[in-house]
Design goal:
This protein has 97 residues and is mainly α. The protein has two domains: 1-32, no CATH class; 43-96, Trp Operon Repressor, Chain A (Orthogonal Bundle). It is built from six helices and no strands. It starts with 6 loop residues before the first helix and ends with a helix. The mean pLDDT is 97.
Length: 97
Amino acid sequence: MSLPHSAEADQLFRSIMALRDLDECYQYFEDLCTVREVRSIAQRLAVARMLAEGQSYQQTIAETGASSATISRVKRCLDYGAGGYRTVLDRLREEDQ
């Protein structure tokens, strides 16, 4: 299933791309999302990173506290999704080097 394109989604994504640094990201996401939503998104990214690095479901559960359903969903996205996780993880890895 592909994420449907819309003017509202375009505006959301362009607004995120307009942020210049981590402080602006924290400010924007504090206004945009609940703390729980940000934690959930951050947890999914951590799960994706761990799975991409070859860690097991059990290691990932222990380290992130994510449910097996969340881990399975992220794994499915890594294997069969649009490639967004892989793009971001690759770029983050490049920045870290």
